[in-house]
Specification:
Order of helices and strands of chain A: HHH
Order of helices and strands of chain B: HHHHH
Radius of gyration of chain B: 18 Å
Mean pLDDT of chain A: 90
Structural class of chain A: mainly alpha
Strand content of chain A: under 5%
Radius of gyration of chain A: 14 Å
Largest sheet of chain A: none
Distance between the termini of chain B: 56 Å
Number of domains of chain B: 1
Low-confidence stretches of chain A: none
Helix content of chain A: over 70%
Oligomer: heterodimer
Chain lengths: ~80, ~100
Amino acid sequence: MNEWLLAASLILIGGIVPCGIVCFLAPAIEALVALELAGSLTAVALILLAEGIHRQPFADLAIVLAALSFVGAIAFARFLEREL
Amino acid sequence: MRAAVVGVLLFAGVGVELFCCIGLVAMQGAYDRLHYTAPAGFGAALVAGAILVHEGFSMVADKALLLAGMLLFLSPLIVSVTARAARIRELGGLRPEREELEEP
């Protein structure tokens, strides 16, 4: 395991798990905040995985995930204003 | 020397990301938790800097820089949109309440 994979696993275990807990336990609008942070963390973890195992497609995945996470967050926010 | 710089940048970036997570868990309420969403972009920028120092301008480093730029630009927008949604959900609109307009 190199330092990139160690950093990715630190983010995945120490970052995504607390976000998931907040996502499941908190009210809807706070769960959305946790989901937004989890999207950013996952994108960074994917870039670190791409560097750690020398697989470029993971870097593409990270960029696509960041863009789609932004669009998804805006859609959720619009729904949470009134409908849900 | 270069390895030391890479290590410092990398684990500073991871530290910023984990700090955001700790803040998210420790705070109560949507508005307080929102403060810890946007700094994740700075962690991504530090990680991109680490990759750039490690191997120069390669494809992965360029994509890491693009990702950091996206997160730095988009995270504050998401915070603003989410705060707006939280306020509308809480009060039914964006107009200030009478108590908010009064002088303290």
